[in-house]
Amino acid sequence: MLANIFQYSFIVRGLEAGIIVAIIAPLIGIFLVLKRYSLIADTLSHVSLAGIAIGLLLGINPVLTALAAAVVASLGIERLRTSKKVYGESALALFLSGSLALAVVILSLAHGFNANLFGYLFGSIVTVTDSDVWTILTLALLVILTLGIFYKALVYVTFDEEAAKVSGVPVRLVNTVLIILAALTVALAIPIVGVLLIAALIVIPVVTALQLKKSFLVSIVYAEIFSILSVVAGILVSFYGNLATGGTIVLIMLAIFTGVFIFGKK
Amino acid sequence: MHKVDHNKNIIEVENVSFGYDRKENVLEDITLAIHKGDYIGLVGPNGAGKTTLLKAMLNLVTPQKGKVKLFGTDIANFEEWQRIGYIPQKAVHFDANFPASVWEVVMMGRSANKKFFQRTKGADRVAVEEALRKVGMWENKDRLIGDLSGGQQQRVFIARALVNDPEVIFLDEPTTGVDRHTQDSFYALLKKLNQDLGITLVLVSHDIERLTQEVMHIACVDKTLTCHVSPEEYLAESQSLHVRGEDVKIITHHHHT
To answer: What is the CATH T-level fold of the domain A2-263, as seen in this structure?
Structure first.
């Protein structure tokens, strides 16, 4: 039975893209979660939805327009937040509702791509194209490389921003880099789990790993294991059970979280 | 005001005034010089601006008036931050669930300055080990920072500050919420850093009684600089004020913890 699955190239593409996203998401997620910034993933995913709507309207690859929208919005959010005139969460709320409104208005302007849009909302491996896999792979390498360069500074800023600043770490640059990477990750994960579920992919494996109370590096390794496991299992289960892929992945993640939370180390 | 006799000022605060936003000034016309090898306590009541003064010396706040120099360089142009160690007040109130081992916390100190994008190297490992040994925490290197006692955590933060061989360490209320016995060994460690390693220490605290037994100089901050004296002079002065029946505001504030 299992041999059959690889006859379908869309499943192979889905697995490839899924594993790439599963590797990236917790790497960004661990910094966002520890900075109490989990909700930014949700906000950026709604911004990406507006980007996708623009892409579908103009006939451009929606992954690219989602990417552009998410990066621009992430810089706007960071700007608003550091201005201190708007609370961090309020900045997120402004962008979340604003971009959802924009997406809905654009979608009401143009009809005829509703089926496609459903895939972007909830994620569907059928919508992953070869060009998506290449886009995702390229961006993933960019994200990993940048994280490698900024890793130490990111850990320091996440743990103690003030002390990091005194140590000469360019805190503002590091925060901007993180939020842009978050935007890239959200936009590139959308074809896999969909706009509505991307936040889960970034947040849940990390929150699960944090329950185990390990060092930073070991926590990342555990988050990676939970993430890849959930995505691969989710894709396979949804294929055989004819279920929505994104939802299946998230439910598996939540099941792992529940198990770890109950039986994990105190 | 007591004039410090010294050969080299490493921190110079000149006529500094600072206020948050457009509100009333927190600091007003403060002039203070700290020389190499000094061990100085910044004291004053809560809200008197002592932490703000410390932040001004670290470029974490920018004074509206006056200037601050570190090692003779105007703070705006100062780049050799590896010469400076800092232990924020927050260090003792950090997120206890943060997933970091003692080793990882001290290694953070090595992300300083232009090295921030480099990979961990042999020199970093050696520096981290040395710093942890100096504070007696090497055996705990693999434990999680959140699992340590308050006193042990402080030692780790000292190690993080030590990891770049700094010439001066700034500490903001380091003994808050730590029991008497732990405080004793903490102050003993500070004395060792100051006397054996020649590290200049700038310490903010409201525990004046204790500070007078430890430091070389006391600077009283209450918006302005109200004294800059030796502990003996401070005690003598507050004694005489007391005898004359004047309100010694500062000395009544050492019970907050």
So the answer is: ABC transporter involved in vitamin B12 uptake, BtuC (1.10.3470)
